Amino acid sequence: MVAKIILVLLMLFMVFNLMRALMAMLRNDPTKPPMTRFLGRRVGASALAILIIILLLASGVLEPNPRPY
């Protein structure tokens, strides 16, 4: 249960950073952090989420759908 909450929080963090990157792109202010910083954080959070999912599947906490159709 805790792992699922962490994954949901990571997804929200990704959306938040995507919106901040959009605002940075639209503003184009050289004194503010660049858009790539926010996109990099989003990619890092995505990699962490995938790693957590793989670990949970390997440990048996999450069970994949046996019949995906």
From TrEMBL:
InterPro entries per UniProt: DUF2909
Residues that span the membrane, as ranges: 6-23, 43-62
Pfam families named in the record: DUF2909
Top-rank taxon: Bacteria
Keywords: Membrane, Transmembrane, Transmembrane helix
Protein's recorded name: DUF2909 domain-containing protein
Native source species: Pseudidiomarina halophila
Lineage: Bacteria, Pseudomonadati, Pseudomonadota, Gammaproteobacteria, Alteromonadales
